[in-house]
Amino acid sequence: MSPAVQIALAVTLVVVVLLLLLVLRRDRPRDLVGPDRPAGDGQAEVLRLARAGRTVEAVRVLRRQTGLPLLDAKRAVDALVAGGSWSPGGPVPGRGLDDAVRAEAARLLHRGRKIQAIKVVREHTHMSLADAKRYVEGL
After folding, report:
1. pTM over 0.85
2. Which residue intervals of the chain are DSSP H helices?
3. Helix, strand or coil for residue 34?
Protein backbone atom coordinates (compact mmCIF):
# COMPACT_ATOMS: atom_id res chain seq x y z
CA MET A 1 0.00 0.00 0.00
CA SER A 2 1.37 3.35 -0.97
CA PRO A 3 2.08 6.06 1.63
CA ALA A 4 -0.59 8.33 0.12
CA VAL A 5 -3.27 5.66 0.60
CA GLN A 6 -2.12 5.06 4.18
CA ILE A 7 -2.35 8.77 4.97
CA ALA A 8 -5.81 8.97 3.39
CA LEU A 9 -6.99 6.00 5.48
CA ALA A 10 -5.56 7.52 8.67
CA VAL A 11 -7.26 10.87 8.01
CA THR A 12 -10.55 9.11 7.25
CA LEU A 13 -10.28 7.12 10.48
CA VAL A 14 -9.64 10.26 12.52
CA VAL A 15 -12.65 12.01 10.96
CA VAL A 16 -14.92 9.02 11.67
CA VAL A 17 -13.79 8.84 15.30
CA LEU A 18 -14.37 12.57 15.78
CA LEU A 19 -17.86 12.32 14.28
CA LEU A 20 -18.69 9.39 16.58
CA LEU A 21 -17.50 11.34 19.59
CA LEU A 22 -19.68 14.29 18.62
CA VAL A 23 -22.74 12.08 18.19
CA LEU A 24 -22.17 10.28 21.50
CA ARG A 25 -21.64 13.54 23.34
CA ARG A 26 -24.89 14.98 21.97
CA ASP A 27 -26.88 12.05 23.44
CA ARG A 28 -25.62 12.68 27.00
CA PRO A 29 -27.89 14.51 29.41
CA ARG A 30 -26.81 18.13 29.67
CA ASP A 31 -27.56 18.59 33.36
CA LEU A 32 -28.63 16.55 36.33
CA VAL A 33 -30.86 19.16 37.91
CA GLY A 34 -34.47 18.07 38.34
CA PRO A 35 -37.32 20.02 36.81
CA ASP A 36 -38.96 22.78 38.81
CA ARG A 37 -42.07 22.01 40.81
CA PRO A 38 -45.27 23.45 39.38
CA ALA A 39 -46.44 26.87 40.37
CA GLY A 40 -49.79 27.29 42.06
CA ASP A 41 -51.66 27.25 38.74
CA GLY A 42 -49.91 24.13 37.43
CA GLN A 43 -52.55 21.81 38.82
CA ALA A 44 -55.28 24.00 37.29
CA GLU A 45 -53.74 23.69 33.82
CA VAL A 46 -53.48 19.92 34.15
CA LEU A 47 -57.07 19.72 35.39
CA ARG A 48 -58.32 21.93 32.54
CA LEU A 49 -56.65 19.70 29.94
CA ALA A 50 -57.86 16.49 31.58
CA ARG A 51 -61.47 17.66 31.87
CA ALA A 52 -61.39 18.70 28.22
CA GLY A 53 -60.63 15.07 27.37
CA ARG A 54 -56.98 15.81 26.59
CA THR A 55 -55.55 13.32 29.09
CA VAL A 56 -52.34 12.65 27.19
CA GLU A 57 -51.55 16.38 27.06
CA ALA A 58 -52.42 16.73 30.76
CA VAL A 59 -50.04 13.91 31.65
CA ARG A 60 -47.34 15.46 29.45
CA VAL A 61 -47.72 18.87 31.13
CA LEU A 62 -47.67 17.33 34.61
CA ARG A 63 -44.54 15.32 33.79
CA ARG A 64 -42.82 18.43 32.42
CA GLN A 65 -43.74 20.41 35.55
CA THR A 66 -42.84 17.79 38.13
CA GLY A 67 -40.50 15.23 36.56
CA LEU A 68 -42.84 12.41 37.61
CA PRO A 69 -42.56 9.02 35.93
CA LEU A 70 -45.25 8.33 33.33
CA LEU A 71 -47.34 5.97 35.47
CA ASP A 72 -47.35 8.31 38.47
CA ALA A 73 -48.34 11.27 36.31
CA LYS A 74 -51.17 9.26 34.75
CA ARG A 75 -52.45 8.27 38.20
CA ALA A 76 -52.29 11.89 39.38
CA VAL A 77 -54.27 13.10 36.35
CA ASP A 78 -56.85 10.36 36.90
CA ALA A 79 -57.18 11.42 40.55
CA LEU A 80 -57.72 15.05 39.53
CA VAL A 81 -60.38 14.12 36.96
CA ALA A 82 -62.18 11.94 39.53
CA GLY A 83 -62.57 15.00 41.74
CA GLY A 84 -59.71 14.32 44.08
CA SER A 85 -56.59 16.33 44.58
CA TRP A 86 -52.94 15.68 44.14
CA SER A 87 -49.86 17.09 45.81
CA PRO A 88 -46.36 16.82 44.36
CA GLY A 89 -44.99 14.96 47.37
CA GLY A 90 -44.18 11.34 46.56
CA PRO A 91 -45.03 8.30 48.63
CA VAL A 92 -42.93 7.60 51.66
CA PRO A 93 -40.78 4.55 50.89
CA GLY A 94 -41.84 1.59 53.01
CA ARG A 95 -45.20 3.02 54.05
CA GLY A 96 -48.07 0.76 53.05
CA LEU A 97 -45.77 -2.23 52.73
CA ASP A 98 -47.32 -5.16 54.56
CA ASP A 99 -45.32 -7.46 56.81
CA ALA A 100 -45.44 -10.42 54.39
CA VAL A 101 -43.86 -8.41 51.57
CA ARG A 102 -41.29 -6.92 53.92
CA ALA A 103 -40.41 -10.40 55.21
CA GLU A 104 -40.14 -11.84 51.70
CA ALA A 105 -37.87 -8.98 50.58
CA ALA A 106 -35.67 -9.43 53.66
CA ARG A 107 -35.48 -13.19 53.07
CA LEU A 108 -34.42 -12.68 49.45
CA LEU A 109 -31.90 -10.02 50.41
CA HIS A 110 -30.26 -12.22 53.04
CA ARG A 111 -29.99 -15.03 50.49
CA GLY A 112 -28.06 -12.72 48.19
CA ARG A 113 -30.96 -12.14 45.77
CA LYS A 114 -31.09 -8.36 46.03
CA ILE A 115 -32.58 -7.80 42.56
CA GLN A 116 -35.45 -10.21 43.26
CA ALA A 117 -36.08 -8.46 46.58
CA ILE A 118 -36.31 -5.11 44.80
CA LYS A 119 -38.71 -6.61 42.26
CA VAL A 120 -40.95 -7.93 45.05
CA VAL A 121 -41.07 -4.51 46.71
CA ARG A 122 -41.83 -2.76 43.40
CA GLU A 123 -44.58 -5.27 42.53
CA HIS A 124 -46.43 -4.52 45.77
CA THR A 125 -45.87 -0.75 45.93
CA HIS A 126 -45.67 2.18 43.57
CA MET A 127 -42.05 2.90 44.46
CA SER A 128 -39.59 3.92 41.82
CA LEU A 129 -36.65 1.64 41.18
CA ALA A 130 -34.36 3.93 43.17
CA ASP A 131 -36.74 4.08 46.16
CA ALA A 132 -37.24 0.32 46.17
CA LYS A 133 -33.48 -0.21 46.01
CA ARG A 134 -32.91 2.15 48.95
CA TYR A 135 -35.67 0.43 50.90
CA VAL A 136 -34.24 -3.05 50.31
CA GLU A 137 -30.71 -1.90 51.14
CA GLY A 138 -32.09 -0.52 54.43
CA LEU A 139 -33.49 -3.90 55.52
Report:
1. no
2. 3-26, 42-51, 55-66, 70-81, 99-110, 114-124, 129-137
3. coil
